[in-house]
Write a structure and sequence with these properties.
Distance between the termini: 41 Å
Radius of gyration: 19 Å
Mean pLDDT: 92
Strand order of the largest sheet: 7-6-5-4-3-2-1-8
Number of helices: 13
Structural class: alpha/beta
Strand content: 5-15%
Low-confidence stretches: 5-18
């Protein structure tokens, strides 16, 4: 069910270079009215549909296709205090050639690192086709002044990051200061611009596990899209509850409805807790059945993960040889 009713005027506004939803974003009160005017989420129905889609059985050729597609959608991630240049270079090598014994294996979509490691990742991945994503804005908590957050983004963009994964101010969002969150996303988006090359794409992380309700996730999705997010992302992977089929389904509905109204396509990135091939395939079914085939591409859908790639590689090997290789077949990240 669409979250709002389609409006031809909004698509026309985009085509003419105008600003759709200008009335909704003109003030804090207007933005609050818009976001709280979105239909409430039927939690029981949402979870039931997510569970139902998760029971779809994918076999043989379709499974092999899904595994390769999932590999190509991974943002291979290391976001630890103990990260070193050597670890980042090793991860970059794995992203570019996930299975050195089988060069038909797709490369991953990106490597995701902290800003101080972005230059190392850029150098290691030069010419590979793998993007460099960098978390920013005082990831993962986002507890810093705006000028500090923007400096974080500038550093990552200057280092050559292709994508920026920012966190919203959950305290501001949960206390109803939606315009503050909106304006912060706008400011970060502006820092993603480059004078001498393509702009960095912006992924906006909601930390859905801290938003408490599905209604809040729906509101955050629309808020992020209104502010110019290129992707909306579930979570940082640093809290107890991260990506789930239900919260991802809700975000997929939001991007589907946003495109129906504006003609603008936004990506979705579930992150944290997706560890097995079976999990990944379930999410791909959600994408296909909710947003549609247009999102079955790594330009529009990503997995934020570290261990997921290993299981996908083992399942891929099993499909090609008929034997399960076990964990020694893949590198330990």
């Amino acid at each position: 069910m669409p979250t709002t009713a389609p409006s031809p005027k909004l698509s026309a506004a985009f085509e003419q270079g105008g600003t759709p939803f200008a009335d909704a974003t003109g003030s804090d009160s207007a933005l609050r009215r818009f976001l709280h005017g979105l239909p409430g989420v039927d939690a029981v129905g949402l979870e039931a549909r997510a569970a139902s889609l998760g029971t779809r059985s994918i076999k043989t050729t379709a499974k092999a296709y899904a595994i390769d597609l999932a590999i190509s959608m991974i943002d291979l991630t290391t976001l630890e205090g103990a990260d070193t240049p050597g670890k980042v270079r090793a991860l970059a090598a794995k992203a570019a050639h996930p299975d050195p014994t089988d060069r038909t294996t797709p490369r991953t979509a990106a490597v995701c690192v902290y800003p101080d490691m972005a230059a190392t990742a850029v150098a290691a991945l030069a010419g590979s086709g793998v993007k460099v994503a960098s978390v920013a804005t005082a990831f993962p908590a986002g507890r810093a002044a705006l000028d500090v957050k923007l400096a974080d983004v500038r550093d990552a963009v200057a280092a050559g990051a292709d994508e920026i994964d920012m966190v919203i101010d959950r305290g501001a969002f949960l206390s109803g200061r939606y315009l503050k969150v909106y304006e912060e996303i706008l400011a970060v988006k502006a820092e993603c611009a480059r004078a001498d090359g393509p702009d960095a794409r912006l992924k906006v992380i909601f930390e859905t596990g801290e938003l408490s309700t599905y209604d809040n996730i729906r509101r955050a999705s629309w808020l992020g899209m209104l502010a110019g997010a290129d992707f909306i992302k579930t979570s940082t992977g640093k809290v107890a509850t991260n990506a789930t089929p239900a919260n991802t389904l809700l975000m997929l509905e939001a991007v589907r409805d946003f495109r129906a109204q504006t003609g603008v396509q936004i990506g979705v990135k579930p992150a944290g807790g997706i560890r097995t091939s079976k999990d990944a395939v379930k999410f791909l079914v959600l994408v296909n059945e909710t947003a549609g085939e247009d999102w079955l591409d790594n330009h529009w859908f990503r997995f934020g993960a570290s261990s997921l790639l290993n299981d996908l590689l083992m399942q891929r090997q099993k499909l090609s040889t008929g034997r399960y290789s076990g964990p020694d077949y893949v590198t330990v990240d």
